[in-house]
Specification:
Two copies of one chain form a homodimer. Chain A has about 260 residues and is an alpha/beta fold. Helices cover about 45% and strands about 15% of the residues of chain A. Chain A has two domains: about 1-155, Rossmann fold (3-Layer(aba) Sandwich); about 160-250, ProC-like, C-terminal domain (N-(1-d-carboxylethyl)-l-norvaline Dehydrogenase, domain 2).
């Protein structure tokens, strides 16, 4: 039986609690021993209050301590742990392994997903990126990760940093383009839902062909007439600026400027 | 029975042929009378060659003539039609109603989707945007559109232009961001598939909440530390430039610059 203790009460911590509880029910050899949270009340809807502790001295012994707190708090939390030489991991895509205090064995347990409060996620499909200092610790983390997800990847700190930047492009920036699409629709009394089948198709395509092969539109065709019509249409300077720069970027495709 | 003649043999024309044939099978009151194509061979895998004509003089009488050719060819095709005062529509998101020759009644029948050759589409879910010069013609087009799709929208020329620009943002530009994500992954020996669940979640979110509400990430949080780390990470000038401009655009959210 692998014993896990979770530190944190935010969005990700709550999703992990639910995932570990489902794992326990299914008889997998993982036990969520305790959760550390400054305010117990935030978690009592999810687990028995005798499993929630707010005092470092009450922490029990476990095989794996998962710190699921905001990036800025990881270092402080790690240094406050009242023990040494145990396996302590953080869950951040942006932070180095070295953010953790060296008095314990370090690791990273990074589920690559955008978690929304109160929205249930199918944890099984979420990729979990693992990093450790040695092979035994990796195997321990892998055992825990495998219990909640089908997709486990060994990802080193530098790769994780790349992944985090890539995620900003495909998630945050993509969503911003959806917002601009919605803005243009609203400005012209068009329901945004009319664009949703196109958006779904855009995403489904890249599950079968590469984004490079999937590229369509006036920019890649170098259809100057349509590009000029669009630029003339866009009176919002910010939208026009993005249109020009993204069109240019598509046309520079592959060139390292 | 509404009689339809299709002009064109490209991607969209082929998808429309398949959709109309399925409609005929299901007993709906639409008949695809003929298809005009310069080269018959391109369509013989889809329909009987006696239904394909390559000579304008062979065109039969129909209630609706749908021109599904490239934007540049619409005007010329419309002017070559050897009849007057019939309902002739084009299928382009980018072109004005006025592109069509005035000797016939004009309309637009624009399916808003990105069609890929040989990839079957569920036409029923594709929004069809209709425009006409009078209500009778609109009703005729609506009858035909309803036979192949569940989503029909009246969209005037100016709105269609807006929709076309919005589609470039949510489809072409979004796909380009996926390409940059794939590039960053490849440069760091990370499989791109690791980002796909995140991409799917990004898209699923906006079917329940608006893109504005769905925005997450360092830009909207104004997390300067993470932004600085990402900017330092990006050595490709084009990627760095896009990162800065999209971050800025998210932070200017709502402000009309």
């Amino acid at each position: 039986m692998v014993k896990v203790i979770l530190i944190g009460s935010g969005n990700l911590a709550q999703h992990l609690i639910v995932a570990f509880q489902e794992t326990e029910k299914s008889g997998r050899p993982i036990e969520l021993v305790q959760v550390f949270a400054r305010q117990k009340e935030g978690l009592t809807h999810l687990l028995h209050s005798d499993k929630i502790v707010s005092d470092w001295s009450q922490l029990k012994e476990a095989d794996l301590y998962i710190i699921a707190v905001s990036d800025d708090a990881i270092g402080e939390v790690a240094s406050q742990l009242p023990f040494t030489n145990r396996l302590v991991v953080h869950t951040s895509g942006a932070m180095d392994l070295q953010t953790l205090d060296s008095k314990n064995r370090k690791g990273v347990f990074y589920p690559l997903q955008s978690f929304t409060k109160n929205k249930k996620v199918a944890f099984k499909t979420i990729p979990i990126c693992l990093e450790s200092e040695n092979e035994d610790d990796y195997k321990m983390m892998e055992k825990v990760a495998t219990a909640i997800s089908n997709k486990i990847y060994p990802i080193q700190s530098q790769q994780r940093k790349a992944l985090h930047v890539a995620a900003v492009f495909v998630n945050n920036f993509t969503n911003h383009l959806f917002k601009i699409g919605a803005e243009i629709c609203a400005d012209n009394q068009i329901p945004f839902e009319i664009l949703q089948p196109l958006i779904l198709e855009t995403v489904q395509k890249i599950t079968t062909i590469s984004p490079e092969q999937a590229q369509t539109g006036p920019a890649i065709r170098n259809d100057q007439k349509t590009i000029a019509t669009h630029e003339q249409f866009l009176t919002n300077e910010n939208q026009l600026n993005l249109y020009k720069i993204l069109t240019q970027s598509i046309q520079n495709n592959g060139k390292k400027l």
